[in-house]
From TrEMBL:
Protein name as annotated: UPF0145 protein ACFP50_04310
Annotated source species: Streptomyces pratens
Domain of life: Bacteria
Cross-referenced Pfam families: YbjQ_1
Lineage per the UniProt record: Bacteria, Bacillati, Actinomycetota, Actinomycetes, Kitasatosporales
Family under the similarity heading: Belongs to the UPF0145 family.
Length: 121
């Protein structure tokens, strides 16, 4: 069951609908496959650490760190979608992100949710 069956998606070529809700209006959960996740750990770049330290003294957005975090979240979500697809899902419900420090050397980002098979009602 591909994206065309429920008419939505996260972007071009994506056949797995990812939502933060527990259901999708107009569709029913035919099968719950189980928890899926995408995990990535990014080390901190020394240059961005120094720049962030200086910026934190005067205030304002840490644009370099923001960009890195967005890229990291996207990679974690891509891995979650790959895992869901590999297990035969066409949807992920109750999608969330968890972000933690990883041993003071980087940031761990985990995207997780419940893989399901959705069908139109």
């Amino acid at each position: 069951m591909g994206i065309e069956e429920y008419g939505g998606g996260q972007g071009p070529g994506t056949d797995v609908l990812v939502v933060t809700t527990n259901d999708v209006p107009g569709y029913r959960v035919q099968e719950v496959i189980g928890e899926v996740f995408g995990l990535t750990v990014r080390s901190r770049h020394l240059g961005s650490q120094i720049g962030a330290g200086l910026k934190s003294m005067v205030g304002g957005e840490l644009k370099g760190l923001t960009k890195t975090l967005v890229q990291t979240r996207n990679q974690a979500m891509e891995r979650l979608i790959e895992q869901a697809r590999a297990r035969g899902a066409n949807g992920v419900l109750a999608f969330r992100f968890d972000v933690t420090d990883a041993a003071d050397v980087g940031t761990e980002v985990c995207a997780y949710g419940t893989a399901v098979v959705l069908v139109r009602e």
